[in-house]
Amino acid sequence: MKQLLLSSAAALALTGAAWAQDADAVQSAVDDGIQQLNDGGGNLTFESREVGPDNSLTLRGVRIAPEDGDVIITTDFVTVTPSTQTPGDVAITVAPVVTFAGTGGGEVPPVEIRVASENFVLTTNWVLGAAGKPSLSFTADSLSVTGGSEDHPALKALSATPRNVAFSMAFDEASRDASGAFSMDALALDYAFVDPDSGASMSGEMQGEALVVDFAGTGLPAGEQDMDRFLAEDGFRLTMQSGPATQRFTSGDPNMPITLDSDAQAASAEISIADGQFLYRTTSGTVNYVVTPDPSALPLPPFEASIGQLDMELRAPVAPSDEVRDVKLALNLQELALGESVWGLFDPQSTIPRDPATLELDLTAALQLDRPLSEMPETDNPMALGRVETVDLNRLLLSAAGALVEASGAVTLDNSGPMPLPNGAVDVAISGVQGLSQSLVELGLVDQMQVGMMMGMIMAFTKPAGDDAFTSTIEFRDGAILANGQPIQ
Length: 489
Prior knowledge:
Helix content is 13%, strand content 52%. It is mainly beta. Among the domains are: 257-356 and 366-385, no CATH class; 402-489, no CATH class. The chain has a 31-stranded antiparallel β-sheet that branches. The protein starts with a helix and ends with a strand.
């Protein structure tokens, strides 16, 4: 596998020191690159070479056969063309088809993967003496990765076709700043595999629209010793946006013979560290699922489920500071619904309301971090790294099957003792729980005695607020917890 990685970098190694613009220098650079690759066990050979009028060098009949024997790469030609506009840049083009032949070994059967491209061009200054600022980019109108056959013992089919693919990256070795981007307009994927030992099959297909990924980082750490500095003074930002997509997955495993169909709307995600603060945020639109069991193995109807919206956010400090920093945990799950075939398994008479479930959580806190997170493995008490000043439950809402729970409140923590002591209150409102509990008893899903004990606890620490509705104020005071003035502990 080590040699496979070397082989994957062969196109770059071929450039050698091709920043010079004359043909002799290009040939010398390519020879140096081949020598470096082969010194590492890459075993690159070619049948002939040609020099073009633009000082380009074309190698024909290229073959890379690494010593570890994992894979052999072949293509009709590779052309290295020095830029006439930017000294140090070279453009690398390859034949329309590049073949990756897995040689197999042991229990792994040989396999051949063909990568076809249209208008593929790789541009790079990633050469010896590139002024410490290597860069690389490539574009292709289309790529096609195909392989497998019905006769193959494992890989029955593989076809992946991204369209209008673009990639770029740059790195400054002095500042350790980096940037990168990847995009494609669409992706079509089909595959089929079989486990040669068990005979279990797996296949799938996917159609997806635009995917865009961007990355930017400053002062990236060179090792673990740089991590504290990086978290406090520098950072990065990684974002992703994806368009609508549909998928089908079929499992022929005797233990799980199902077909899963799904379709999803656009989604986005962000991960970043900036000013000593970590952020993780995702958002996605409607997602629908249909699980269809194999009727010959599982005589059950298809199961349907859907999610109307799902948003998540986590924000927290990751570096020490003299100031109190914000912590946030938010979750917004809207309209989680189950199909009637699922409900019918345990509630065919519609005893329980079919209302979609919703979960909303908005929790914030004020935290002062006194020591770097790298010291966490060395302490038995995570609280020794810092202290929480306040916690605010801005909103908690959970609704499902006709029941509703809502809560909000705030507490301040007294950190003067050995353990933080909260002081504050949380207001809680509950409705529909008694009716839902009784329905579960009627269906035989819950024991009547358990429901009675639960409702007894609810009534003991709440106040009636209407038909099947209760409210309570949970207070944290002087180390005690009270519900409507009654001690809980």
